[in-house]
Amino acid sequence: MILSEQRFKQINVIENGCIDDVQGFYTTGTHCGLKRKKPDLGLIYCENVAEAAGVFTTNQIQAAPLRLTKSLIETTGTLQAVVVNSGNANACTGKQGMIDAKEMQKCVAEKFNLNETDVAVSSTGVIGEQLPMDKVRAGINTLSVAESKGSFAEAILTTDTTTKEICVEILIDEQPVRIAGVAKGSGMIHPNMATMLSFLATDATMKGSELQQLLRDTTNETFNRITVDGDSSTNDMVLALASNKVQHKQLNQNHPQWGVFQEAFQLCATELAKMIARDGEGATKLIEVQVVGAKSNDDAGKIAKTIVGSDLVKTAVFGKDGNWGRIICAIGYSGCTISPDLIDIAIGPYATLKESEPCGTNDKEITAYMTEEETIVISVNLHVGTGVGKAWGCDLSYDYVRINAGYRT
Predict the structure, then answer these.
(1) In this structure, are strands 226-227 and 387-394 parallel, antiparallel, or unpaired?
(2) Annotated catalytic sites, by residue?
(3) What biological-process terms (Gene Ontology) are attached (predicted)?
(4) What number of other Cβ atoms are within 10 A of residue 74's Cβ?
């Protein structure tokens, strides 16, 4: 779905907004000792049991917390709290991993007087190491939703260089409704619901079934359109919660303002996805690939992600080299329907290929563009249909190797 200009004008982005700015929700975070100094344990809390939806990694190796949370979403479709730790993925940890995930769930339920089945668990960090549950238990015991906002976004980070948050406001039946999100991720990003985590919250009134379909559709066009290094994690998940705090007519696809809500929701997810791509480990540039004229929207999205996922394209961007041959090569192996003689390619404002004929663009102009701009836009027109799609990624630098070579040290 491409955001319409008219509806986009109806979406107000809240400056420095976060999940705490959504009615009914509170977040907090603390340092419990999983990481050396920084916050490593966080909580999202809702005043009431919220409608919930989730989308999860398609990696067949799935961490215990993810399997536990996925089961909750599929069974009850409601949540009141989400506890997240960083620094340890609790993945590939055998039977003890699930025991520990359930203990985290139980500790939060007891601390905040909740039903255990309304507490989701998420973990991110090093794979294959047991959680030091003495530290986790002590950390959960210190959590308080009365603390200042902001620490949750820090507590879920691993190799990220910055927090990633957004909050928007729209009017539904003349009532202000907010949607907010937070995310983490900078490496091992290639979602197919990527390590990436994202949590979205709204005070809109709606059923979990509508939220689940919206989340699935939105994820396919946002979080599933980013790539940093081609690796899908064992822990990737996106959760969405609706507190039903705003008194308007129940939102569903028959509501006259469903489109506005849908686009505001997608805007949050899109911006979070771009923040993840921009913060790729060692990245110096955000790459945005725009594809039009594909046989279908699915083809357009797949081709865009293939281009942005190409190591050769990524290294060319890092080297500020407008090597469009790498782009057309990625289009060719995307597996999608194309006409090899009809392809247009542009890097920024500079056309490099027109109907598969080189345009003779000055390489120095493209190098200057790639040097000056923080976001490098690659545009493709396939001229075989009406499909459109976008994908986001980052360049591949020397620092990516340095960061990941020493990940455990």
Answers:
(1) parallel
(2) 195
(3) L-arginine biosynthetic process; ornithine biosynthetic process
(4) 11
Q: What digits encode the pLDDT tens for the residues 170-211?
A: 999 999 999 999 999 754 444 444 458 999 999 999 999 999
281 is in an annotated binding site: yes
**Other Cβ atoms within 10 Å of 4 Cβ, number:** 12
pTM of the model: 0.83
Return phi, psi of residue 81, to 5°: -155, 150
Residue 12 CA to residue 315 CA, distance in Å, equals 36
DSSP string of 135-185, one letter each residue: HHHHHHHH--TTSPTTHHHHHT-SS-SS-EEEEEEEEETTEEEEEEEEEE-
Residue 266: CB atoms within 10 Å: 21
Phi and psi at 360, nearest 5°, equal 70, 30
**184 a known binding residue?**
yes
Read off the pLDDT of residues 65-118 as tens digits, 9 standing for 90 and up.
999 999 999 999 999 999 999 999 999 999 999 999 999 999 999 999 999 999
Please answer whether residues 381 and 396 qualify as being in contact, where contact means their C-beta atoms are separated by less than 8 angstroms.
no
Residue 158 labeled ligand binder: yes
